[in-house]
UniProtKB/TrEMBL annotation:
PANTHER family: DER1-LIKE PROTEIN, DERLIN. This is UBA domain-containing protein. GO terms for molecular function: serine-type endopeptidase activity. It is a multi-pass membrane protein.
Length: 386
């Protein structure tokens, strides 16, 4: 029996395995935020009042650039370290579902809407007729945590889980998970922006309710971005995940998914979601060539965010899974004759393997490596167990 290289390797090797399994955009954002903090530390830059999100400055001087500079800058080593350690598993999971370009657009959208919600709430609280709270419009907020809170809400909704673990201490209903974290951070950490995190939660729920659907482009937009010659170097990177080539678990909001007018959305789906206090996105139906409709499978929720429970794949499995998805994505892009029937056959064979007792992630990787042949996939899985 060959030794387990992953478990017997040193810390540096394990870190390399973990980092190599991180997709392109997630690793890129992490490097950018870390690099910006290191540069500020080396040059002694601490004038955060010039780049933080300051509602009074945005409103009076229309400094829209603060929407995005405030997201990339951090105030301390612990601040950037905790944010990036939280972001990497979240970003990795969502990037594998959505694709690299779609995730990048989503983070841009969330940064924008977070700032707008922050601005609106700050001035509503300041100018309310009952009790004026003026300090919120002069509060200087920086950090990536607002976008992280939005991503927590979105990933929890896509996973379909009923409960989430809070730091491994106790379980809470998934619909309250982000709110519990918001409250705990206010008590456990000092100098935390309540409104910044709250705005992130509001944006996350607005996305899952479908309120941003008309702001989201269709698949052709992402395909055109991926086809740009100037981005060919990025697209060829192993960690780059195509938006149209991988298997998408769960229904992602897009402009093309909007089959009802806005009034129907507000009067029906939106009010129903508000009453349940949970962004329970229903899987929409897709039209096949025979005009038959079928529901998309929901994402099983293997990601772990902020010490959430659940079985998480090892570094080797995650790296193999990512490589298999990237290979399958490039194959689909190069051969446009792949049909929906082939995808259905793959899903059926995968369900059979899972029913035989194999772990879903390993079965998916083995079936992809076997080009959909279940007999070869079983041989691969059995050889891994020897």
């Amino acid at each position: 029996m060959s030794p387990n290289i992953i478990t017997e390797a040193g810390v540096s090797t394990r870190l390399n395995q973990w980092w190599s399994s991180t997709p392109f955009i997630t690793s890129g954002v992490t490097i950018i935020c870390a690099a910006i903090y290191l540069v500020c530390l080396l040059v002694g830059y601490d004038s955060y009042a010039e780049i933080c999100f300051l509602p009074s400055a945005v409103a009076s001087h229309f400094q829209v650039y603060r929407f995005y500079t405030s997201v990339l800058f951090h105030g301390s080593l612990l601040h950037v370290l905790f944010n990036m350690l939280t972001f990497v598993p979240l970003g990795t999971e969502l990037e594998r579902i959505m694709g690299s370009v779609r995730l990048l657009f989503l983070m841009f959208l969330l940064a924008t809407t977070n700032a707008i919600f922050h601005l609106i709430v700050a001035f509503l609280v300041d100018y309310n007729p009952l009790y004026h709270v003026s300090y919120l419009v002069d509060e200087c907020s920086i950090g990536f945590s607002g976008v992280i809170f939005s991503m927590i809400v979105i990933e929890t909704s896509l996973s379909g889980v009923q409960y989430r673990s809070v730091f491994g201490l106790f379980n809470v209903p998934a619909k309250w998970y982000a709110w519990i974290l918001l409250i705990l951070f206010q008590f456990l950490a000092s100098n935390v922006s309540l409104l910044g995190h709250l705005s992130g939660i509001l944006s996350g729920f607005a996305y899952t309710y479908g309120l941003f659907n008309y702001l989201l482009p269709g698949p052709s937009f992402y395909s055109s971005i991926e086809g740009l010659s100037m981005l060919s170097v990025c697209v060829r990177r192993p960690g780059f995940i195509l938006c149209t080539g991988g298997t998408t678990y769960g229904q992602l909001p897009t402009h093309s998914n909007m089959s009802t007018p806005p009034s129907a959305l507000i009067n029906a789906n939106f009010l129903r979601n508000i009453s349940s206090w949970m962004p329970s996105r229903r899987t929409s139906t897709v039209q096949t060539s025979t005009n038959q409709e079928q529901e998309d499978p929901r994402f099983p929720g293997r990601g772990r965010t902020l010490a959430s429970t659940g079985t998480e794949p090892t570094a080797r499995e995650a790296n193999a899974n990512l490589h298999a998805r990237h290979t399958a994505a490039n194959t689909v892009r190069a051969d446009a004759t792949v049909t929906a029937d082939q995808t259905d056959t793959f899903d059926e064979e995968l369900k059979k393997l899972v029913g035989m007792g194999f772990e879903r992630t390993q079965a998916e990787v083995a079936l992809a490596a076997a080009d959909g042949d279940p007999n070869v996939a079983i041989e691969i899985l059995m050889s891994q167990q020897d």
